[in-house]
Structure formats: structure tokens, C-alpha cells
Amino acid sequence: MKLREKILYMSFGAGLVVLGMGLNSLVNVDADAQVSVKDVTFRNVTCQRLIIQDAYMKKAFLGLSSSGDAMLTMYSDNPNYVIAYLGGNEAENNEMMLQLKSKSKTDKRETSIMIDENGGRFDSLNKIGESVNHLAVSGDSDDGLGVSAK
């Protein structure tokens, strides 16, 4: 490339820069991001998971379990300790269950509602983790109601 071609090439680039600056001053419209959006309304939102957290800790999870079923999990101040769960009971029969626990790890109070092999079931535990009541559909042929309380 000769010196004349180099100067022409650089002049062309400089001309484009000046043209861009001139057009920007004519348009004079700034594109600003919306910083203070507080409430937003959507018609439809589709996602696989929604994680709610404060600055550093996860507080809730709404999404799909490993088996593909919907589930809701809420956490205490410790993100590893679940205080509320709505989803499949993978430990027993993969039916739906709702489980509520005390916020404190040392306080074992808990209430759960679930579907078992006979129908519905309600269980409650006291502060030390002992079962204080159990209300369930009986497994007998008469399909009655079984209740046990301490």
C-alpha cells in the first residue's frame, strides 16, 4: 500500500467518525435504562424455574423437580434448611404433599398433609419431634377414618 492510499484510507475513517458525531448531535435522543421500575405487569411468563432471593441468600424456589413435577420450596435464614415444601413425596409414593416446619432447626414442630396409599393423611409433630396426632383414611375394607392422638 502506497503512502497516498494509506492517507486516503485514514481520511475515510476520520470522515466516518466526524459523520457519526454529527448525526448523534442531530438526533439528540438518549437511550436510558429504566432504573426505578417497581411494578411490572405481564400477561404470560414461561420459565422452568423461579428463584427468589435477597442480596445473598435463596429464600424460595418455584420450578420443576428432578422428576419433572412442579414444586415450591421455601427456606429459612439458612438456605440449606427447608421450612415449607409443596410437591411430590419422592421418599414414599411420589404423590403430592405439603410440609411446613418451624423456622428453627432445633425446634422440630412440623405439620404435613399428604396422599398415601389409602387416601389423604395429616400428621403433626411437637417441639421434640414426636408425633402428636395422625389423621388418615383407614386401610380397612370399610374405608373409614383412622385417628390417633397423644
Description of the molecule:
- The chain is of the alpha+beta class and 150 residues long.
- It has a domain of 101 residues.
- The chain has a nine-stranded antiparallel β-sheet, with no helix packed on it.
- The longest helix has 25 residues.
- It is rod-shaped.
- The chain starts with a helix and ends with a strand.
- The model has no long low-confidence stretch (mean pLDDT 81).
**Low-confidence parts, pLDDT < 50 over ≥5 residues?**
none
Structural class: alpha+beta
Mean pLDDT, rounded to whole units?
81
Major sheet: size, sense and barrel closure?
A: 9 strands, antiparallel
Distance from N terminus to C terminus (CA atoms, Å) equals 96 Å
Count of extended strands:
9
| Strand proportion | 35-45%
Strand order of the largest sheet: 1-2-3-4-5-6-7-8-9
Helix fraction bin: 10-25%
**What is the C-alpha radius of gyration, as a whole number of Å?**
31 Å
Order of helices and strands: HEEEEEEEEE
Question: Please, how many helices?
Answer: 1
Shape: rod-shaped
